[in-house]
Amino acid sequence: MSSDSIPLIASRCHAAGDPIHLLCYFAPEADKEFTSAGLEPGHMGYFAGRAAPLGRASSAAVAAAFFNFNPALVARHLPRAWDLAPPERVTEARLTAVDRALRRVLGTETVRGPQVAEAARLARTAAEACAPEGRPLFAAHAELAWPREPHLMLWHALTLLREHRGDGHIAALVGHGVGAVAALITDTATGRSLFTAEQVRTHRDWSVADWAAETAALTEAGVLDSAGRLSEEGRRLRARIEAATDAAAAPPYRALGAERAERLIALCTPLRDTVAASGELPRNDTADRPARG
Predict the structure, then answer these.
(1) First CA to last CA across the chain, in angstroms?
(2) Which residues contact 29 (CB under 8 A, 6 or more apart)?
(3) How far, in Å, are 12, 36, 108, 143, 277 from residue 45 at the CA level?
(4) Which stretches of 143-283 are DSSP H helices?
(5) pTM of the predicted model, to two decimals?
(6) pLDDT tens sequence across 220-230
(7) Residue 194 contacts by C-beta under 8 Å, 6 or more apart in sequence?
């Protein structure tokens, strides 16, 4: 495996596996299990579910770790969520929701099949090669017990790889001087985001004024053009950030090896496609995303 190919493999593995992970946020089973555990419906389940491995974390700590949500939105739900359901109960509810969602979306035959079991073993090997230094969300999730059932082991491994990559992505953004709102604006301006700019703005709870002020600053800096599109400098900036993210995400795939990483991609791709076809995940019909995986 050449050193140049490792970051590309990391990017392709992420593209193949991430939609499988994303079911924990968008499948109806998630909201049902979180509310059954005592949480309020809506954003609370997302924040508490993803942050629960950190323990009874403060809203400031979670907002910093998640990076691009308005801290005021996080503060409306945390730490109050921990009084409604302790982190251990929330983690249990999340795994139950994932179990039910994967069984429904992928089907019992697929969930119990040899391909999922093989993918789980490969993804676990990669996840266990991740280093925790400087990666708080990954490190917290890595302390959770491994599920025994293959489809849950696969989901947990993909979650670890996602949080490992996400922590590295935030480091790349910060290192390039890109803040929370600027990160969202420039990401949606690439045309490849899962969400439209308006969906992102409202979901992350940034005001129209917040968005307009950051858009103006990015335009003045030459990152956006007068139409709000990425300029040549903006495209170079995003390319540098993605390259740094892929490089930081590469070590587990270096440990896995090219052949086994390609096998993991091949195993996850039909699962990803089934999830995408299910309609469970948001869809941005204006996005220009190249097929990868």
Answers:
(1) 18
(2) 96, 97, 98, 100, 101, 104
(3) 29, 11, 26, 20, 24
(4) 150-175, 180-189, 197-203, 208-220, 232-249, 251-256, 258-277
(5) 0.94
(6) 999 999 999 99
(7) 281, 282, 283, 284, 287
Is pLDDT above 50 for 293? no
Tokens 């849950």 locate to 152
pLDDT at 283: 72
224 strand-pairing partners = 230
| The pLDDT of residue 4 | 60
Q: Which of 225, 249, 230, 235 is nearest to 172 (CA)?
A: 249
In whole angstroms, give the CA distance from residue 220 to residue 241.
20
For residues 33 and 94, the answer to whether their CB atoms sit within 8 Å is: yes
CA angle, residues 35, 38, 44, in degrees to nearest 5:
65
Distance CA 147, CA 158 (A): 12
What are the residues facing 230 on neighbouring strands? 224
- Cα dihedral 276, 191, 166, 47 in deg (nearest 10): -70
